Amino acid sequence: MAIDPNFEESREVVEEHEGHRVWGPVEEPETLGIHGTHVAVDFDICLEDGACLEDCPVDVFEWVETPGHPESERKADPANESQCIDCMLCVDVCPVDAIDVDPGRENRI
Ligand code: SF4
After folding, report:
1. Is the residue at 4 inside a domain?
2. Dist. CA 51 → ligand 1 center (Å)
3. What's the confidence (pLDDT) of residue 106?
4. To the nearest whole percent, how much of the chain has pLDDT over 70?
5. Structural domain for 21, as ranges
6. Residue 37 has what pLDDT?
7. Domain holding 86: CATH number?
8. CA quadruple 32, 43, 20, 63: dihedral positive or negative?
9. 55 is in an annotated binding site
10. What is the 101 CA–ligand 1 centroid distance (Å)?
11. Which residues in the chain land under pLDDT 50?
C-alpha cells in the first residue's frame, strides 16, 4: 500500500512535530500517521530503508525513533521539508512508496 496522495482531504492534522504537521489517525506506538505536507512520509508504511536519507541532496530527512511500531523502529522524518527542491529522488527510491512530494501543498504551520 502506497501513501495516499490525497491525504489532505482524507485526513486531519492532529499534531505538530519538529516544525511540520502530522496527519492522523495517530495511536502510538502502532499507528503514527503521515508526517509533513510538502514532503509527506507515511510513517505506517516506512520500513526504515534509508534510501531517502542517503539520496536527498538537501538533507530533508532525519531519523526519528519509533519503538514498538510494527513496520520499523525508525522512520524517515521530513524534518527539513522547507528545504525541498522537488527533485523527486526520494519518491523514486522509496521501495514501499511511503513518500509523496507536492510543491503545491502548503507546508507551513
Ligand atoms: S524531492 Fe528531492 S529535495 Fe525534496 S525531499 Fe525528496 S529527495 Fe529531498
Report:
1. no
2. 11
3. 74
4. 97
5. 13-101
6. 96
7. 3.30.70.20
8. positive
9. no
10. 8
11. none
